[in-house]
Design goal:
Elements (H helix, E strand, L loop, with lengths): L1 H12 L37 E3 H6 L5 H5 L5 E6 L4 E6 L9 E3 L2 E2 L18 E8 L13 E7 L7 E11 L2 E14 L3 E12 L24 E12 L6 E15 L14 E20 L2 E18 L14 E18 L5 E18 L5 E19 L2 E21 L2 E4 L5 E15 L2 E12 L3 H5 L15 E15 L2 E25 L2 E26 L2 E14 L13 E12 L2 E10 L2 E2 L7 E2 L2 E11 L4 E8 L7 E3 L2 E2 L4 E9 L1
Parallel strand pairs: 4-7
Antiparallel strand pairs: 1-6, 2-3, 4-5, 6-7, 8-9, 8-34, 9-10, 10-11, 11-12, 12-13, 13-14, 14-15, 15-16, 16-17, 17-18, 18-19, 18-20, 20-21, 21-22, 22-23, 23-24, 24-25, 25-26, 26-27, 27-30, 28-29, 30-31, 31-34, 32-33
Length: 666
Amino acid sequence: MKKIALLVFLLAVSETASAATPSSDRNISETNIFTVGEIVVTGKKEQSKDRVTAEEMELLDKKNITQAVNLLPGIFQGNIGARNEGMIYVRGFDMRQVPLYVDGIPQYVPYDGYVDPNRFTTFDLSEITISKGYSSVLYGPNTLGGAINMVTRKPQEKFEGKMTGGISFGNDQIASTLTSLNLASNQGNWYVQSSLSNLDSNFMPLSGSFAATKNENGGKRDNSDTRDFKGSIKVGYTPNSADEYSLSFINQDSNKGVPVYTGFNPSAAVRYWRYTEWDKSSLYFIGKKELASKSYLKTRAYYDKYYNVLDSYDNATYTTQTTKKAFTSIYDDKTFGGSVEYGTELIRNNTLKLAVHDKYDMHKEFNVGQQAKEFEDNTLSVAIENSWAASENLSVIFGVRRDFRNTIQAEDLQGTTLTSFELKDNAATNYQLAVVARLDDRQSVTSYLTRTTRFPTQKDRYSYRFGSALPNPALQEEQSWNYGVDYSIKPFDTLKIQASVYQSKLSDVIQQVDNVAYVNSIWVYQFQNTGKATYTGFECSVDWQPVSWLKSFTGYSYIDRKNDSNPSLLFTDVPRNKLSGYLQFFLDKSTWAMVESEYNSGRYSTSDGKYKAGAYGLLNLRASTSLQKSLSLQASLENLFDRNYQVAEGYPEAGRQYVISASYAF
């Protein structure tokens, strides 16, 4: 009843809600961007490339957000092979430490803090922004290493739409098909935006260089099929130029196989898993109201549901469940929440923002035939952020946020008896300070210092890890002090260079401590706040169009992650070096060809350093032309040289694929 009352209260407050004016420092077109879905830090300029636009996603044929954000320096694409789940690393931090949002609404799963970014397709997005190093306190809790915000579309015309169809081939067969439809209308004081997409992958084609193993014979990757259906609708009311109210609903219906491990690590389990249901839906309201010419109020209220069915089978036939390793596991998670943000510029050259966030998470899990366990947390955050324009060319931004996490329920199943874990609460304080200087009309620099935190998830605190671990309800928050300098220069109108140097000093990192207890005839481990680490890095990007018929982009990332508390325990899944970019050649206004490339150095897949995914380089070719004013055709040849590569040892990635798509815009 309390959760329902909270949602009703937030919806009521949103009747007087408002949003800040978007920053004037943007360097991209704001066409079709749902600006009230953005998180804006007043006075902070874009010194490191931190966003991917819808145009770039379409240009480079990035169908999910993992692929899309991998275009940016400082971002590394990973793969949790044992769950066939994508992973995004932001300057070395994973998605528990860098939460995912849509229009500022948190999307991560309450139980483990993760969410599979491969399931989030890009066809209804206007942009994706990533906060790296410096993330606003206005986002709310758990932004230890930053934040990722998917911003949806907003129509500009009285009637507009786009239809897209595509097909990919691998191993001389149809590997996947795509259909999407966007329809929208803006009638002045109201608008509607709708989207449908379906991405069906029959299999992932392996490289011809892949050598058959005991569990994989090559060609079509076994049990690699996925299906992602997504539908969304947004209805908005804009009574005047300053106020806006919108109600959105997004539904995702997915299922996926989990290809088995094919590597050489004898301790790696071979699992015959399928996610027969991976469903997620979000209903949210965002409102803005200008209280006076220099003040505003903005609210968000949301309900999010995640439902997951995992089937574990006896063998590669995926038909029987009779052995001890077979089960059907169900996760049923729900979240109620909302936020209220107030901003004012009543003091000259000063913007003050206050925000309150509340998030009520519920997780229920059970194996079919067993009793369900339930967990509930409530997280409250109070934040203040102040931006002071000290002069025309200098701004100072300061923010502080206090987070509180109240553990309401945490059930433990012993045999057939439900008991309760010890209920522990947490509290943490976050700080941020940035100085933004415009050196001249073409140069700017930002230096910052932040202290950020992340609360341990329900899985961190309460999971037995299939009998190999001891829960630790007393886990405390992870902490990080982040330092950095961002620099941007535009020496010519056709050339822009952005660079960043940074360091993060982590403490109280949640790490595995072995042999803490002898339980059921085995030594078990426990997760404890024992870790200290230092992440140091450099990244840069260059956008250059030297002549009208040639455009280029290059991004480079370097990161060194040191485990200060246990140097023999290596960090995994993030390469030290990454270089990516493209050359785009224009034949005329509507016809172009492109060479896209990416290089990643090797990365460890196990913390002892015995198993790693080797370095690799990829080359893709793309071309597009307009058959008529509204109809365009695009073709791609991905992984041109059919490279056999991995981002996680034992889980090979796709070989050469041919992709053809057509789009009709109106």
